[in-house]
Amino acid sequence: MLPFDFNLQEVFESYLTIEHKGFLSLLRVVEPCVESFPEGNQHMGRPSYSVLPFLRAALAKRYFKIVATSDLRARLLSDANLRQICGFENIPSAASFSRYMSYLADNVSLEESLGKMVKDYYKDKSVDSVVRDSTAISAREKPVNAIYYGQCL
To answer: How far apart are CA 6 and CA 61, in angstroms?
Structure first.
């Protein structure tokens, strides 16, 4: 009888696409910097979901450029690899998904943790960037005739 000596994570990663591998690399960088969230401790009713899969799903939404939360949920339902990376066994209902996403959007400690990570990274570096504002400026459509208003040029 031969012993099975293999790393399940390596086997799983061998079946991932380049996009999935990139997202997994992003999670490996970001997750150690994020403070842990308190898990809901309900005494009655259905047990609450863990926040970590929703955090990963929120990061996936940005990484894969998914616009709507409903589209993200549909992607998780159809993409077994992404569902496994995020840590979902079953995808919650649309209402639960929306509730957890708004909780993450309102969470200040998450923003502080990620902001601290960025500050630490750019601490000794000079950041050169050009920012262009494309805000529309209201202006007149037609030139005003100065003579008509009693003004001379």
So the answer is: 32
